[in-house]
Amino acid sequence: MNTEVAQCVEQITTALETLSALFEDPSRLEFEDIHKDMELLEAQFKQKATIDAAFAFIAERDQAGRTVGANYANAYLQQCLDLSKGEAYNRLQRGRLLFAPPEPPPSPPPPADEDAEDLFSGADSHAGAGPDSGPDASRQQQEEEQRQQQSDARKHAAQVSAEKQDIIRRELDKLLKAAAGDRARIHADAMREALSRSPEDLRIYVRKAVEAANRKHAPRTNPNAGHENRGIAIGRRKADGTVDIHINTTAGHAALIKAHLDQGLAPNSNLPKELQGEIDPRTPRQRRYDQFFAIFRQYEQEYQEEHNGAASVVIAVTLDDLADGDAVMLYGTNVGLEVDCFDLVRLGMDGTTDFVLQVDGVTSVPLWLGQSNRIASIAQRIAMFAVQGVCSWLGCTAAMSECEAHHILAWIKGGRTDIENLTGLCREHHRCNNDHRDGSFNKGYMDFDPQTGRSGYRKRPSDPLRFNQSVPATQSAVSRIYAAKGRCDCARTGMPDPAFHPRV
Predict the structure, then answer these.
(1) Among the listed residues 446, 453, 448, the one whose alpha carbon sits nearest the alpha carbon of residue 425
(2) What pLDDT, on a 0 to 100 scale, did the predictor assign at position 115?
(3) Which 3-state string (H, E, C) describes 296-326?
(4) CA of residue 363 relative to chain centroid, distance
(5) Looking at the chain, which terminus has fewer C-beta neighbours within 10 angstroms, N or C?
(6) Nearest 10 degrees: Cα torsion 461, 462, 464, 465
(7) What is the predicted pLDDT for the residue at 160?
(8) Mean pLDDT on 339-367
């Protein structure tokens, strides 16, 4: 079987290389001559979506994450197949839908009082009931129906593009837990409908089917159905400088939010006295927004006073940034969103005096806290952000606000809570780190370079340190200083860098 797969891959590779060479110069090709062939090729490539899903299922089943020193198969798909997190998730989910055992139907509810009376109503009450008419038989029948539905979905999968399969998967993710028993049925119906519907129409079809399934369980039979789907999603910065934030909440919480926001609908609400006038030029949406942000400001101020720090936005700015900055320059933040100078003013950074760290050869922050303190301080977290920008694992772009402070030499092995023994790792990669450094489960570990002050990754003690070279990592304050000045000569001289070792 392995040989057969290898032969097929070799043939496809050869054919694609030939096609690629033919298309290097499109001027030599005419649409009328090739469009039928390209349509046939596109139709055949629909089968790859199912192959991808099957391989993802195999990778998860056989714990492929261990081959790259990780806990889960998505890491393997990202590293070895060069997939994004989203695409790795898509393939894993499609693999589960097509090949994993369907989710079992929900357990039947306990018998009502009248049913309980029937249990004692006499021997004749179930006289006509056979051995296969109980709840177990019904459950077995449901499971068999789900397996058949899954089989039907696989029959159509080879004719459904990856785009359409992803549309179906995304809508199925919106099923409530209580409606999980309908997943196989809706998936089979959707895969059949995908043969004749456009992607946009297919999305509407599946969405309505999911809503119908959810409606059976909410709110009468499942009062917490909406609460199970609560969430907030924060997008990326758009060209106009705005960011979309999507909030999915219950009606009760929505009512509470609206009650607070409506407090700011009055003209001149949340405006400085000097800007208040007879006519408030803001729209109702803008007034609600200003009220929303005012609530956040109040919470942050109170939390700061009580806890000596809050979930604040930290901005990495070098002296060169301040000297060369203009209205369009963007600054990285600890939450992964870039802001401009106008954002700095809106955030109140124009009059701030609480800069904790300077990274340009001078610092007064007490970063060396000693072994008695296991938890990293706010100052240390800010310092880590200035140095690394994002999670320090190879290729990771997780924002520093999503990272945990990791002891390079584990705390249980005597590692100190000093800045040179700390690095930020996201939750996923923190769990992938091998604290024992013994190569178990093919896992590597983070280590410290005393010459440059950077933390890097090793698979084994004999391996050279490898550093995160993702775009956000190279845009950290310290990385930009090195790139601009070429100041670090530590690798050649062996002397510690004064930016990381100001006491030397």
Answers:
(1) 446
(2) 47
(3) HHHHHHHHHHHHCCCCCCCECCCHHHHHHCC
(4) 34
(5) N
(6) 0
(7) 92
(8) 53
Mean pLDDT of all residues in 220-231: 73
Report which of 353, 310, 368, 318 is spatially closest to residue 502, judged by C-alpha positions: 368
Largest CA distance in the chain: 95
- Backbone torsions φ then ψ of 231, nearest 5 degrees: 175, 165
Q: Which tops the pLDDT comparison, 224 or 87?
A: 87
Model confidence pLDDT, tens digit, residues 447-485: 988 776 778 999 888 899 999 988 888 878 777 766 665
Q: Tokens in use for 181?
A: 């028993």
Percent helix, strand and coil across the chain, each to the nearest 5: 55, 5, 40
Start-to-end Cα distance in the chain? 62
Model confidence at 493, pLDDT cuts 50, 70, 90, reads low
Is 447 in a helix, a strand, or coil?
strand
Cα separation of 176 and 415, whole Å?
A: 45
Which of 331, 293, 292 has its CA nearest to residue 315? 331
The radius of gyration computed from the CA coordinates of the chain, to the nearest angstrom, equals: 29
